[in-house]
Structures are given as structure tokens and as C-alpha cells.
Amino acid sequence: MLRWILGSREAQSSVEKSSSLCAEEEQPKNCFTELQVLKGHFDIVRFLVQIDDFRCASAGDDGLVLVWNIETGEKLQELRGHSQQITAIKTFVCKSALIDQTLLITASSDRSLSLWDPDTGHRVQTISDLQSSVKCLLVLERLSLCLSGGEELCVWNKDFQLQCHLPNRSDTGIVMLIELPKNCVAAAMDKDIVIYRLIVSPNSSVMLTEMHRLFDHRDQIRALININDNMFATGSHVGELILWDATDFNILAYEHILWEESQSASEIRMGSSKPSEMSIQHLCSNGKLILAAVGCGLYVYSVLTKTVVAYRKVAHDSNVLHTMLLSDSEVMSCSEDGSVRLWEIQDLPPPAEPASAGIFGMLTFGRSSKQACPPSKKVFDVPNLKMLELIGDLIGHSGAIQMFVSFKENGLVTCSADHLLILWKNGERQSHLRSLALFQKLEENGLCEFTQESAAFK
């Protein structure tokens, strides 16, 4: 285990502050001050999935699935069976009268699906005669069903028997799936969202029917998430964020997130942004807020007020690939630049003097995809706007960080294009646990010596 001093890149003073991380309560600090490098993969590690409170599985382009103990960093199992890269991985909880067992489902470019027991490392079931590669998976534990999406949408029961399937008419195929109320699912295919309904008969047979097709995005959909039981959200390659009603599929809100530059006080538009600068790569939500990764920036949106809460136009040096809302005031992001950053949503400080527009950047908003976007709005004209303040910078990977999984007080796991996983821990908590373990051992040794001395005296 290595001890690492981590701090902000934005100001020299942040380096000095990071030496006392987690020590002061009056200011938020990055507590991830210890790291452990986990080796086992030999290609890009793209996926992490949490199995339980102390285990996770990693998968990537080498076709391997590895199971890790996040307390010790020990590699518990190697799941070998796929001959090409893993394209999707999910947990599947099988409920029984005796015990609930968590299994792993993996999909690969070798056109196969596998069901694994992470406790033993055994492959329980495999399907190897698929017509095409599976790009995404969705587990419906309530119905004991699994859906796989690609060039076709397939429904499988818990025994991996095909229940029904539908081809799709998209060149890209189905790339994302989420569950909706009333036995419905939403599938992202290129620019469209397709709503399907599952009909389960009394004899457990399953039918799949297409209900709606939503055409409101103007470019490829890059993110699809649930917000709550009543809403879901999508994000596109050109920065469109749409909130949808999960039952009648109407648009509840539409925002066009467009980073723009300003020059001096006259605010000159610099032309259209590059697609990579305004593409929404990832969305996450806690039911109250939506956090969007937009190019190399971050954008926080309120579900309740349908307004922007905070934003950071340049949060990383390269595109942001994964995000998480830790709370209503703290967020986390990782990027192609190889860093994981922690942010706090803070009130803007009162300006000491009239601020130049050049320090703010601009956002343009549109309320309907069928209408032209309204004139640009200054960010500082948006009421109650807050800022994202950097409070921690985790530097350890040498390649693009694909995603991370938080185990809360037990740590954070990141995976990267450098073939490595890194287990990040709360340094103060780990020191405390080591001290407790040492004292316990000393007490046990002291008691043992006392018992031996007493026996010799007798």
C-alpha cells in the first residue's frame, strides 16, 4: 500500500493544503490519500461492477473477468472463457428459498453470453451462437429476466433460455437499455429512443412489443439514465439534454449545453464548438440533480427547477468519461487525462468589482428541439448559479480512466487504459484501522506471555 499526497492542480496553494487532507473539518478535503495498484489485466480495462460490499469485478479488452477483494486488493477469481473483448457486464441476483446468490453476466465481441459464479469462478451457462455481438445488457430482477441489445433485442430467462427477440432497423444497433415502469424498457439506437413493453403471460412466456419511437434528438444518443420512477434522461453527441416522462414519454425539459468562448466585454461568439467539446459522454443522477459530462467539462442540472445549478467548462484536460454524484454538494469525475477529481458545489463569491465576461464562458439554452435556440444567455445571469470547486485530484494512472466504483468508506476503485486498477483508500481511516489491529495484536501477545509466565510460576 502506498501513501500518496494528492492536491489541486489549479493553484499552488492547493498543494500545501493537500498535506493536511482529512485533518480539518472546516474545509472539504480529499481523503483518498492511500492507493494500491491491482495488476492482472493485459489490455484496456473498461468495466467495473460491484458484487457486494467487499468485492468487485473488472473486465476489458483482454476478454478476462477478474474478481477482487477491495479490502485487501487480493485477486479472488479469474473468469476465463471469452476469446475477445468484453462489451458488457452486469450482476444478476438469483433468489431462492435458502439464499440469494449474486452471479455475473458478461457479453463479448466473440458473440457469446456467459453466466458466472464469482464465488467459485465457474461458468454456469453460456450462449455462443448469437447472430451478432451484444453491446449492452439489462437485468430485470423483478421478472427474473435479462435483456441483451445489439443488432437485435433478446429476452432471456434466469436459465439463459431465449424467450423472444426482435430485430432492429438501426445501423448502430441498440447501445443502451434502461428499465421503465409498467414492464417497459427504453432502448437507445442512434438518434432514436425506442420504447418496448414486455408482456408476461401466466405460463411465464414473454412477448416483446414496440410501443413508441422518440425522434427528438438531432444527433447520436450517448447517454441514457433513469432519474426516478417518473423520469428518465438522454444526452446526445451535440450537447442535447432531454428529460422525459417515464409513462407518457413526453418531453419535460430540453437543454442544449453549448460551451462558448467570450472575448473582452463585447462577448464575441467563436463559432460552433467541436463535437468532442460539447458531446455528452456520461450522465448520472441522484433523483434531484443530473450531472453531465460535456466534453472536458461538467454541468449540474436541477430536476426540480429545470435549471442549471452549476457548471465547470474545463474540469479536466481531456474528455470526461465517467461521473458520480456523491451527495447534493459533492461530485466526482474521471477523464481521458488519467485523473479522478472531486468537486464541491459552492456559492459564487461576491464580485469585488465588475467582472469581465471573459472569465465566465457562455451557455445557450433551447426549450424545444423543434425550434431554433434562443439568443445566448450569460452564465452569471442565471439565478442562484453556483460553482464547482476542486477539492481533490487523484493522480495514479498513466492512461485514460474508463470508470470508477465507489465503496463509500471502504474505498474507491478505478480502471484505466493502462491495464491497471487502482484501489484508493481513506488514509486516515486506514491508519486508524492499522493502529487498532496493532494494539489488538499487542494485547493478545501480552495476554499470551502473562499466561505462560503464570503457568511457569505454578
UniProtKB/TrEMBL annotation:
Record flagged with keyword Lipid metabolism: no
Domain of life of the native organism: Eukaryota
One GO CC term, this protein: lysosomal membrane
Record's keyword terms, sorted: Repeat, WD repeat
UniProt entry tagged with the keyword Repeat: yes
GO BP terms, alphabetized: regulation of autophagy
WD repeats: 57-78, 100-126
Signal peptide positions (record): none
UniProt-listed InterPro entries: WD40/YVTN_repeat-like_dom_sf, WD40_PAC1, WD40_repeat_CS, WD40_repeat_dom_sf, WD40_rpt, WDR41
Any Pfam family the entry gives: Beta-prop_WDR41
Name of the protein described by the UniProt record: WD repeat domain 41
